[in-house]
Design a protein that fits this description.
14 strands; 324 residues
Length: 324
């Protein structure tokens, strides 16, 4: 086992994939000479050269489209979009091309492209660079949406994602890049199922990505109030592993969802709807959720903190679900 930062785990996963298969290459804004906006690709240009670590013009639609074309041509591109708000410029390529080509070609073509992007607030990057849009992408058939919340998942999700014949989007919460954890050699992670990060019997706490650490901290605090909390890390936002969530709620009979996305039309809303559709008779209390406030994320630190989910908000919501 080796202790790595989340950033080093992602870099190592890219390096391992490129060493294992010469068809793999990385492309995006500033991924080469600059080493990536979050220093994820630092050093890879010197190691693999400009043919495989490709700096692109500042046109998300153009280089995402080029990645899709390369994937159709037999390559295994990793496309880095600097932050998820910039991915809106490539949304047409992702939704109308990458997600639909296998269907529209009658299965003749696959698009094995992996698109990575930073997501989430908490860095004082204000309203235009603090989005959590992974729930939007989870709405689209034809793609897989991953949200690695741990160093191990950051290290182990890329390999299986590149093996998927269809497009995979990986959302890396930018606040996690400095987190550390132990990772084994040649780690490979299941990209089909959620993970139970903490066992519990009173309350199911469902979350993903940058909210996992807050949820685990809240579960520890709730234990001090006599509430045994089971923490589920979704990991895969599309397709949702609803079976794991339903099984947990059948055991605890109560559920709280923590989602950094905005409340309206969020992934938390989808989970709540599925629980009502398929697990209503297992519930002993109304469903609850903690999301970001319905405002553009503020720049001022105290206002940004107030807008995002926090341990205090999660604890308060958990106690309310339990009737405390």
């Amino acid at each position: 086992m080796t202790e790595l930062t989340y950033r080093e785990a992602v870099r190592g996963a890219i390096r391992n994939a490129m060493q294992a298969d010469e068809r793999v290459f990385l492309m995006g804004e500033d991924v080469g000479r600059y080493g990536g906006c979050y220093a994820v690709s630092k050093g890879l240009l010197e190691e693999f050269g400009p043919d495989r670590i490709r700096d692109t013009p500042l046109s998300e639609s153009a280089f995402t489209g080029a990645g899709i074309g390369a994937a159709m041509g037999g390559m295994l591109p990793i496309v880095e979009v600097m932050t998820c708000n910039f991915s809106l410029l490539s949304l047409d390529q992702i939704m109308n091309n990458a997600a639909t080509i296998r269907h529209m070609s009658g299965g003749q073509f696959h698009v094995p492209v992996v698109i990575r992007m930073a997501t989430g607030g908490g860095r004082q990057l204000a309203a235009q660079h603090s989005h959590s849009l992974e729930g939007w992408y989870a709405h689209i058939p034809g793609i897989r949406v991953l949200a690695p919340a741990t160093v191990e998942d950051a290290a182990g999700m890329l390999g299986p994602a590149l093996e998927d014949p269809d497009p995979v989007l990986i959302f890396e919460n930018a606040l996690l890049y400095n987190d550390t954890g132990e990772v084994g050699e040649a780690v490979s992670v299941d990209i089909d199922h959620a993970a139970i990060r903490r066992e519990g019997s009173d309350l199911s706490l469902v979350t993903y990505g940058g909210s996992l650490g807050k949820s685990l901290a809240a579960a520890e605090e709730l234990a001090g109030h006599g509430i045994s909390t089971e923490v589920i890390d979704l990991r895969v936002l599309r397709p949702l592993d609803e079976d794991t969530v339903l099984a947990s709620v059948a055991k605890t009979r109560r559920c709280l969802i923590v989602d950094e996305g905005w409340r309206s039309g969020s992934i938390s809303a989808e989970i709540m709807a599925r629980l009502v559709e398929q697990g209503f008779w297992n519930l002993d209390a109304p469903l609850a959720r903690v999301c970001s406030e319905e405002v553009p994320i503020p720049y001022a630190k105290h206002l940004e903190d107030a807008a995002l989910p926090s341990v205090e908000k999660i604890v308060a919501a958990g106690r309310a679900v339990m009737g405390h």
